[in-house]
Amino acid sequence: MIRKFLTALGEYFILMGKAIRSPQKANVFWKLFMREVNDLGVNSFGLVVFTSVFVGAVVAIQMYNNFSASSFPIPTTFVGYATKAVLVLEFAPTIISLILAGKVGSYIASSIGTMRVSEQIDALDIMGVNSSNFLILPKILACVIFNPLLIALSIVVGIFGGYLAGEITGNWTSADYITGVQMYMPTLFFTYAFVKTIVFAFIIATVPSYFGYNVKGGSLEVGRASTQAVVWTMVFIIISELILTQMILS
Fold it and tell me: How far is 14 from 35, CA to CA, in rounded Å?
């Protein structure tokens, strides 16, 4: 088991070494990059917004309930601050990245896997095209550049979701919530959130690409590779979060 894992890890780094190179044709690469931005980023807008609104509302309500149950009186202004802090530190970068790992990761693995089983990748190699660079690098750059924008959007929409929760429940006033949101938060928290996002984006783009690129068999194996890609992407996201938290916040 360990030997198999180490072999796969070595193959992954070799594949990434071939993928992360200067494109052979800049104009072709630019077209592929813009297509990946649309497929991997823009098409995820709706899912990110929908999820973030409800996550922000749930976080705000939970913060209010915890403060209300406290034996010490805590002003409701801290509901806004706590919601912002939780969204920035954990929920937006991690939860949204895990959701994108399922949506984007399965798409990447299945699309590349289908090209492998239909011998399109072999045709690219025969024509002298660096197939790994041609297929994987645009996805990596699209995710690394666009995912931080999705996370920033998630934070803003999540905070707005908390505001809506206050308006609907009446548990705290909009003035108190806005005051809490405007409270000072260390810059390190935002740095931590977006460093995590970039690392997660790289994992989301590369791990499914590895599984799709190395598919052997037919359509059934493509489906299995997509499932494995999503699972391992989530595993590596969780492991990398632990490592980054220890490195940046400790």
Answer: 26
